[in-house]
Amino acid sequence: METGAEANRLNFYFFLGGGVELSSPPSPSSPPRHLSILPLLFAASSSMSNNVEKEPGPQQTPTEEPEKRKREYKDFGHEQEGPTSKGARRHGHRSCALLHFINATLTFPQIELKAEDLYDKEKVDLETIVIDDVFKLLQCDENGLTAEEAQRRLELFGPNKLEVEEQNAFLQFLSFMWNPLSWVMEAAALVAIALSNGQGQPPDWQDFVGIVLLLFINSSIGFYEERNAGNAVKALMDSLAPKAKVRRGGTWSEIESSTLVPGDMISFKIGDIVPADCRLTEAINVSIDQAALTGESLPQSKKTGDQCFSGSTCKQGEAEGVVISTGPNTFFGRAASLVGQDDDTTGHLQKILAQIGSFCLVTIGIFVLAEIFCLYAGFRYKYRRGLDNILVLLIGGIPIAMPTVLSVTLAVGAQQLAKYKAIVTRITAIEELAGVTILCSDKTGTLTTNKLTIDRNTIHTYGPFSAEDVILLAAYASRTENQDAIDASVVAAIGDASRARAGIKLLDFKPFNPVDKRTEITYLEEATGKLKRVTKGMTGIIIELCSRNKTDEIENRLEADVEEYAARGLRALAVAFEEVEGDDFEAEGNGFELIGLLAIYDPPREDTKQTIDDAVALGVKVKMVTGDQLAIAKETGRRLGLGDHMYPAKVLKDGPAPGGKHASLDEMIMDADGFAGVFPEHKYEIVKRLQGLGHLCAMTGDGANDAPALSRANVGIAVEGATDAARGAADIVLTEPGLSTIVHAIRQSRIIFQRMRNYSIYACAVTIRIVVCFAILAFTYKFDFPPFMILIIALLNDGTIMTLSVDRVLPSMTPDSWDLAEIFSYAVAYGIYLTASTVALVCIIMETSFFQDKFGVSLETAPPIAANDRQLHMVVYLQVAIISQALIFVTRSHGFFFMERPSTALIVAFCIAQLISSIIAAFGDWGFTKIQAISGGWIGIVWIWNVLWFIPLDWIKFAMKATVIKSLRERREAAARQEGASGVPMTRTQSRAASLHESMYSNRVSFIKRAARKVGFGGKVHMKPEELHRFSSIQAQRAGATLARNPSRPTA
C-alpha cells in the first residue's frame, strides 16, 4: 500500500515511452496543433484504488529490485532511467509502461498532451504539484539548464514575451493606395490610358504615368515616415526589456528575461520584477506585490513551493525559483491574449477623413456631372475633348496627398512625443489625445512619488523623547540594507543613512514578518555600554508590548492620534523602547515604553501641483482614481489642490445617497474630484459613464487587470513601470513617471492636431478652387486646360505640403475637436475667392487688351485671344500654381500670416516649388500637351497679380472667424445650459456623431487588418468566460466577468 503522504496528493509518474519532442512553441492565438505527444501517467490514490486490475502472469513482490524493470529513455534531450514497457507504437508514439504496485498491476490511461496542454490546469497543474515533481516534469535541477539545452527550449517554447505580429511592409505600402481618394485617382489613371483614345489621338500616356507617379510618391513618403516612426517606437520598447538573474550550468549570470525558458533557475530580491511564472525553491522573508496582476491590494507572503507570477514585484526578501511558464503561457500572458483587436473598428480620425473625402468627392461629382451635361449635350464636344476636361477636375480636385500628409504628420508627431518620454503604440491616439477633456489619473507613482515618507511635522511623542529621538530610534529598528518600503522611509527621514548604525553595536535584529507585524533591534550603546532594545510596528501590536506606560490616558491619546492620522490619510507607525539589564542581549528587558508615533504617507511629486494647474489651463480636468482608502485620497487631493470631492468606489454601484446634492450618478461622477478604493471594474465604469456624457477620456494604468479600462478609454496610458499586458492594451506608454509627461503629451498632440487642421482647410479650399474655377472657365469660354499641367501643380503642391508635418504652430488652449462646419466654411470662402482671382485674370486677358497696352506683352494669338491659346494655358498654370500654394501661409496662422513664422522647411519648399513653376512657365514648350513658354513680362505680371490678390486673404479669414466664433459661442452656451455647470469643457459631439458611410470609407488601417488578419493588443476587449478556469484568483475572475459584460470600446 502507498503511504499516507503519497495518498494525499496527486502523483505524477513520468514514465515516458517517448521523448517530449515538441517542434514549435505553443501559441494561444494559433489553433491547437499536434506537434508531438507528451505521454504522462498520473493518478490520485483514490483513482488508483478504483483502477486496480489483476493481470495473469508472474507477480512481482514488494522486495523485487526496480532495476529489473529499468530502461533508458530520452526526455528533453537527457538520458534518464524509467520503467520498461513492451507497448507498441501508437500513432507514431510509444505507449506508456504499466505500473506495478505491490502484488498488483495498476493500469492507467495514457494522456497525450499538445505543447499548449503543458499549461492546462485540467491536465498538468504545475502551480500545485509538489516541487520535486516540477523538477521531474521539466527535467531540470537546482544547478540550472545547460546553455545548449536553454537554447533548444527557447526555440521550442519561444521567447518570454508577448508576441505582436509584425506588420507586413508590402501591405502597409499598398494601404496608402487603398482609400476613396486614391480610388478616384486610380480610376482617372485607367480613364487616361484606356478611354482617352479618339479623334485619331494616341492613348494619354503622359497623364497615366503622371497619375501613377503621383500615387507612388505619396505612398512612398507615407510608408517611409510611418515605417521610421514604427521602428523608432519598437527600438524604444526594446530598450525597456527587463533583465533576469538566472543560473545555467551552475553559474549565475544576468540575461534578458525574454530568453528565459521553462526549467530555468532564477533569483530575485527586493525591488525586482519577477521575470516569469515560477515555483519558489528557496524563500527568505519573501513578500510579493501582485496587485498589477490579481488586484490584491496587499503584498502576499510567499514560502518555498509557492508560485510567483510574472510581472509581480518583490517587496521584501530574496528568493530562488524554477521557471514553469513563459511568454503567452504565463498568468498575465493568457489574460493579455484575451484582449484583441476588432477588425471592423473604424477609428475616429478615419471617420473624419471619410467626411472630408465625402465633401471633396461630392463637390467634384456635382461639377463633373455638370460638365458632362453642358459640354456633351450643350456644346456637342467630341468624346476625347470632354474627357480631358473631366480629367482636369478629377486630378486637380482630389486631395490625393491627404492620407499621406496626415499619416506623415502623425508619424512625425509620434517621434516628437517620444522625446517627451511618451511612446505612441496607436498612432491615431495622438488626434484623440488633443481632444481629451478629462484625465483619470491613478495616484501612486503618477500624482505621488510612490515612495513612502515620514511626515516630520505630525510626529507625536509620549515620553521624555523628542521627535528627533523617536525618528533616530525608529531608524535603529530598521534595516539599512535589503530594506522594505517602511524601513527605507524611516532611514531616509534621518538624512544620513550612516546614523542608523552610528554609535551602536548591533547584537540582534528581528525583521518584519506577517505574524509579529513589527521589527526589533537589540544593540549596545557604545557611549554608555548599556544594552537597549527598540521595536516599531503596528500600533495595536506595539501598545500591547508597552508594559511600562500602558495606561488609559496613553491608550486614549494613541487612539485619538491614530484616528487623526487616518482622517488625513496617513499611516501610523508606533515606536517603543526598553533597556536590557546585564550582558545577555537575549534577556528580557525592563519593559517597553511607547515613545512615539510616526506618520507615513506617499508624498506628491514636486511638479504635480503645477502640472495639474497647467492641465486645467489647457481645459483638461484631472480626476484621481486610486485603490487607496478614501481618507488617503482626500489628503492627497488637499495637498495637490485637486479638490476634496472624493467618493468611495461603491457609489458607482449604489448610486448617490437619497436626498443628497446629486440627483444622479452621472452628476456625481462629473462633480467628483476623484474616487477611492477603486478596482479595475470601477475604472471601466467611470470611463464608460464619462464617455456617455460626451467627453473624451484618458485613463492611466499599470497592471494587467487595468487592461479593460485602458482599452475602453479614448486614450489608454500605461504609466512608467507598467506590465507588458498594460502596455499592450494602452495607446501611449510612458517611460518617465509623473503627470507632467502626460500634460506635455497633451500639449504636443494639440500642436500636431493644429497641423492636421490647417492642412484640411487648405486641401478642401484647393479642391473648391480647382473644380469651380476650371468648370466656370469651361462653361464660359470653352476653356480646355491640359490635364498634364494639373498633374504638375499637384506634384509641386504635395512636395511642399509634406513639410507641414514639422511646421511651427501654437497649441490651442482648449481641447481640440474636428468642427467640420468650420473647416468647410473656411474652405468655401477661400476657394471661391481664389477662383475669382483666376477667372478675373482670364477675363481681362481675353476680353480686353489691358496687359498688352500697359505692359507691352502679347500671347500666341492676337486679340481677341482664343480660349485655348497655348500661352494663355501657361499663364493660367502659373497663376494657379503660385496663389494656390501661397494659401497655406494663411490657413496655418491665426492672425496675420507674417506674425507667425513658419518652419524653415516650409519656406524652403515653397520657394523651390515656385522657382520650378516659374522655370516651367519660361521654358516649357512641350509638344505632347497644349502649352507654350511665356515671356518674362508675363511671369512678372502673374506674380504681381497674385500678390495683390493674396493680401486680402487674411481679412477674409478674420471675417470668417468672427462669423464662425459667434456661431460656436452660441452652440457652446446652449450645450452648457443642457449639461449644467460642471466646469468641464464640452466636446463638439455633433461632429463626432455625424452619420458616416463607413462601408464605403473603410480606413486603410482596416484594410491592413483584413488583409493580414493579425491578432494584437490595444483594440477592443473580449474575454471568454470559459477561459477563467485557467486563473486562480477571485480578482482575475471578477475582471474577466467585467470584460465579458463590456466587450467593446468606443470609436468616437
Q: Main attributes?
A:
eight-stranded mixed β-sheet, seven-stranded antiparallel β-sheet, disordered C terminus, disordered N terminus, Rossmann fold, Calcium-transporting ATPase, transmembrane domain
Look at the helices and sheets and give the structural class. alpha+beta
How far is it from the N-terminal to the C-terminal residue, by CA? 68 Å
Number of helices: 36
Sheet with most strands: strand arrangement? 18-32-31-30-19-27-29-28
Can you count the beta strands? 32
CATH topology of the largest domain: Calcium-transporting ATPase, transmembrane domain
CATH architecture of the largest domain: Up-down Bundle
Keywords: ATP-binding, Hydrogen ion transport, Ion transport, Magnesium, Membrane, Nucleotide-binding, Translocase, Transmembrane, Transmembrane helix, Transport
Organism: Psilocybe cf. subviscida
Subcellular location: Cell membrane; Membrane
GO molecular function: ATP binding; ATP hydrolysis activity; P-type proton-exporting transporter activity
